[in-house]
Design brief:
Elements (H helix, E strand, L loop, with lengths): L12 H4 L11 H10 L23 E2 L2 E7 L5 E6 L6 E5 L3 E6 L2 E7 L10 E6 L3 H4 L1 E10 L2 E11 L8 E11 L10 E3 L5 E4 L22 E5 L28 E4 L6 E4 L5 E5 L6 E6 L10 E2 L2 E2 L16 E3 L7 E6 L12 E5 L4 E5 L6 E6 L4 E6 L5 E5 L4 E7 L1
Parallel strand pairs: 1-24
Antiparallel strand pairs: 2-27, 3-4, 4-5, 5-6, 7-8, 8-9, 9-10, 11-12, 12-13, 13-14, 15-16, 16-17, 17-20, 18-19, 21-22, 22-23, 23-24, 25-26, 26-27
């Protein structure tokens, strides 16, 4: 049996006790609306959900937290977003559903036919910065077209500006043929500059057999940056004038950075830095800061270690990883948002990430690279989310449960 807690519609300590922040730019009425629309919390969840500090985490700084379940029954969740202004939680399912959760209510806004073999599926969503006015959002999904697997970024419109009323499919923004069924990445994020950032993996299979990541003539293995507000005659977007390779004769002008293996999740820090969790291959996972024009190293480097060639690899011209961890900690990194809430003030301005295989969660200081352990959990953390009040959520891919991070 599942038991719900009561939401506390108050500020200060009472609100913080259920993971609610108080941002100065929200009026009291706006805060109440957000609190009412955020998904209700459950007091208990079937099965053990106790965290522990094991392995190398025993020697790291530690913070005791609790994972409070707020939604159940999500089939293979791939992304968590929150509708601007309303705070309605939106969760993508790998096999094509866009689910929403508001208070005690839930529903499906749209269901799309997608390819979902291996790492394919409905993978990422981003609300337009002017969503309150134009009701637009964008999704990254893999479809079958002309007998090929194709990653597409498409525009959608929420009916009456309310995601709970459904969504209408719109124009295609961009597409990329996938040579294999893995390393599709799939995240979408609007930057503080208002442009859409699209992270692509190297296309698979393993060891980047086509050398896509070091080839800026392809979208694969790259971070793209485009302006979706001003389409041209031949594109559904404009390439920003300050993109680093816009004047290069042969490289893709959409490219912001390259040399990525599989940037499954990434986000912008509070100071505007683009932080990516790039999934490693044989030995190391990495957290990196992506600058304009950066070569992030793959497949010459796997994090801070030579990959190809195996030794004496060149070091000039590559952006080194901020942080790495090896197989003692985990096997597949999942990012990640900066914490800006009130419930866990010890995490203020730290970037939260985890490992999909071992269930470990961490927080990293992007200036010092110091990592705080948040425990090892019996779950498969596939994606994180951050609500309008700055609180962090994590999805368990296996159980289909969405949790909010709250004090231990």
């Amino acid at each position: 049996m599942k038991y719900r807690t009561k939401l506390i519609l108050a500020t200060g300590c009472a609100a913080a006790s259920v993971g609610l922040a108080v941002f100065s730019y929200y009026s009291e009425s706006a805060r109440r609306t957000l609190i009412e629309n955020l998904p209700m919390a459950y007091e208990a969840v079937a099965g053990p959900m106790a965290g522990s500090f094991t392995g190398l985490d025993r020697d790291r700084k530690q913070l005791d937290i609790t994972l409070l379940p707020v939604a159940f029954g999500v089939l293979q969740p791939t992304d968590i977003q929150f509708e601007p202004e309303t705070g309605v939680m939106v969760v993508l399912e790998k096999k094509g559903k866009l689910r929403w959760f508001r208070g005690e209510q839930e529903g499906t806004a749209i269901e799309l036919p997608v390819r979902f073999a291996s790492e394919e599926g409905l993978l990422g969503l981003a609300f337009h910065p002017d969503y309150a006015d134009n009701h637009l959002f964008y999704m990254n999904l893999v479809i079958e077209e002309d007998g090929r697997d194709v990653s597409v970024v498409e525009e959608f419109t929420a009916v009456d500006g309310d995601i709970t009323k459904g969504a209408l499919r719109g124009r295609r923004i961009l597409q990329q043929i996938q040579p294999y069924q893995n390393h599709d990445a799939g995240q979408l994020q609007f930057g503080p500059d208002g442009y859409l950032y699209i992270g692509w993996g190297d296309g698979g299979y393993r060891a980047d057999p086509h050398d896509n990541s070091q080839d800026p003539r392809t979208f694969l293995g790259s971070m793209l940056r485009i302006d979706v507000d001003t389409p041209t005659e031949d594109r559904a977007y404009t390439i920003p004038a300050d993109n680093p390779f816009i004047d290069h004769e042969t490289w893709k002008p959409e490219t912001w950075a390259y040399g990525l293996r599989n940037p499954w999740r990434y986000s912008f820090h509070t100071d505007g830095r683009l932080v990516v969790a790039d999934v490693g291959q044989d030995k190391y996972e990495e957290v990196s800061i992506i600058p304009a024009g950066g070569n992030m190293g793959w497949k010459v480097w796997e994090a801070a270690h030579c990959f190809s060639p195996k030794e004496d690899c060149p070091s000039e011209g590559f952006v080194r990883a901020l942080y790495e961890y090896g197989r003692d900690d985990g096997n597949s990194i999942t990012g990640g948002y900066t914490y800006t809430g009130e419930a866990l003030k010890e995490l203020n301005d730290l970037w939260i990430f985890g490992d999909f295989v071992t269930g470990r969660l961490w927080a990293i200081d992007l200036d010092t690279a110091e990592v705080t352990s948040l425990g090892k959990w019996p779950m498969l953390p596939s994606t994180f989310g951050r609500d309008p009040l700055g609180e962090i959520y994590v999805a368990d891919f296996g159980r289909g449960t969405i949790f909010r991070l709250v004090p231990g």
